[in-house]
From TrEMBL:
GO terms for cellular component: cytosol. Substrate binds at T47, E74. Pfam families: AA_kinase (PF00696), ACT (PF01842), ACT_9 (PF22468). The lineage of its organism: Bacteria, Pseudomonadati, Pseudomonadota, Betaproteobacteria, Burkholderiales. The gene is ask. This is Aspartokinase.
Length: 417
């Protein structure tokens, strides 16, 4: 019997009414003869509420306790969904991550899944039960509850699908698939029928929060067919139609090759820029600046170092906004005088906009087209970074939406291809 994993996000689980709809949809799949595992998120707003409570008590909450708290949102969801299924005559059982067990490392608030035990779940499925497992959470070797980072239920779902050798992982959310860009920012954004795994990986890492990046990594590493689709359609819509709807992440490279150069546009507001001015231009400087930043567990994204004219140069890089203050303090306290830098400057009002597409490999002139569009809009580019299938620019955050809209138009993304 084929096994399918369903994942439902916060909006999809947002009220008891919505949970009842999820139950109807799940029951429909089960009635059609599939074994079903459901991985829900916390009800919408709940994780934010819990983190807010923690911060009222302790401004920088202890990460272990924060995970203990934040993980409870998903426990509420699994129990309610199990009840909703039982209420319509289905046998269902809910589990917290530790009960399965979903084992992770001990990196609280951003733990990585290491293994998933399939024994208990397999038994339930074989007995005809629908199994509901909390998203977002796991347990480390010392039996501490851990969480997988914001949006982590996507990763739980794909990892469970991989561990259980499911036929497909269906990610039900509040949009009906992956779009050329966030449809809430560009109303002309177009849904993609397929997106290559590589493109989805770039889009997720560049800020498209429709899927957590680690879920895409799991899907790619284990070639797990993964589809993003709407949970807000009629739950009783024909199953065959639903099964083909949304966006499939494809592992076939060349689907888009002959078509558009650009598949999508991603953006990220969670950026801050730091410049170390007047640094001596000698070997080891990049390491002396970025080494301590990395040791403090701060992720550095874009980096530029200028050509020196008089033996001095400026060194600029970006970090997540939440780590900005920590990074500035660190540089002022232990790096600036050590390397003889003149001063440290920063800007938290910056955003990154990226164009992504495997078609870029076979098209030239994408960068100049992008830069021309931004220049026509009078938008100054502060930093640039590229890879084979993406070009990213850092700009003033107040122009971010304008840039995304203008680029969406320039690359004809509203037209179907
Ligand atoms: P869930 O709670 O179901 O996990 P999320 O809010 O995490 O949902 O992700 C879905 C949201 O992702 C959409 O509502 C949309 O605003 C946003 N999004 C960003 N980029 C894209 C994109 N390229 N395609 C579709 N949705 C996107
Ligand atoms: N509830 C968690 C969050 O809000 C996990 C998720 O929704 O995927 O980040
Ligand atoms: Mg999400």
């Amino acid at each position: 019997m084929a096994l399918i994993v369903h994942k439902y996000g916060g909006t999809s689980m947002g009220s008891t009414e919505r949970i009842k709809n999820v139950a109807k949809r799940v029951a429909k799949w089960h009635d059609a003869g599939y074994q079903i595992i459901v991985v829900p998120s916390a009800m919408s707003g709940e994780t934010n509420r819990l983190i807010g409570l923690a911060k009222e008590v302790m401004p920088q909450p202890n990460p272990r306790e924060l995970d203990m708290l934040a993980s409870t949102g998903e426990q509420v969801s699994v129990a309610l969904l199990s009840m909703a299924l039982q209420a319509i005559g289905k046998e269902a059982v809910s589990y917290a991550g530790w009960q399965v067990a979903i084992k992770t490392d001990s990196a609280f608030t951003k733990a990585r899944i290491q293994s998933i035990d399939d024994t208990k779940v397999r038994k339930d499925l074989d007995a005809g039960r629908i199994v509901i497992i909390t998203g977002f959470q796991g347990m480390d070797d010392d039996s501490n509850i851990t969480t997988l980072g914001r949006g982590g239920s996507d990763t739980s779902a794909v990892a469970v699908a991989v561990a259980m050798k499911a036929q497909e992982c269906l990610i039900y959310t509040d949009v009906d698939g992956v779009y050329t860009t966030d449809p809430r920012v560009v109303s002309e954004a177009r849904r993609l029928n397929t997106v290559t795994f590589e493109e989805m990986l770039e889009m997720a890492s560049l800020g498209s929060k429709v899927l957590q990046i680690r879920s895409v990594e799991f899907a790619g590493n284990y070639k797990m067919p993964t589809r993003v689709l709407s949970s807000l359609t009629d739950p009783m819509m024909p199953l065959e139609e639903e099964a083909k709807s949304g966006t499939l992440i494809s592992f076939e490279e060349d689907i888009h090759m002959e078509q558009a150069a650009i598949t999508g546009i991603a953006f990220n507001r969670d950026e801050a820029k730091i410049t170390v001015l007047g640094v001596p231009d000698r070997p080891g400087i990049a390491y002396q600046i970025l080494g301590p930043v990395a040791s403090a567990n701060i992720e550095v994204d874009m980096i530029i170092q200028n050509q020196s004219v008089d033996g001095k140069t400026d060194f600029t890089f970006t970090v997540p906004r939440g780590d900005y203050a920590k990074a500035i303090d660190l540089l002022n306290d232990s790096v600036k005088s050590h390397i003889g830098a003149a001063s440290i400057q920063g800007d938290t009002k910056v955003s990154k906009v990226s164009v992504v597409g495997v078609g870029m490999r076979s098209h030239v002139g994408i960068a100049s087209q992008m830069f021309r569009t931004l220049s026509e809009e009078g938008i100054n580019i502060q930093m640039i970074s590229t890879s084979e299938i993406k070009i990213s620019v850092l700009i003033d955050e107040k122009y971010m939406e304008l840039a995304v809209r203008a680029l969406h138009k320039t690359f004809d993304l509203e037209k179907s291809n």
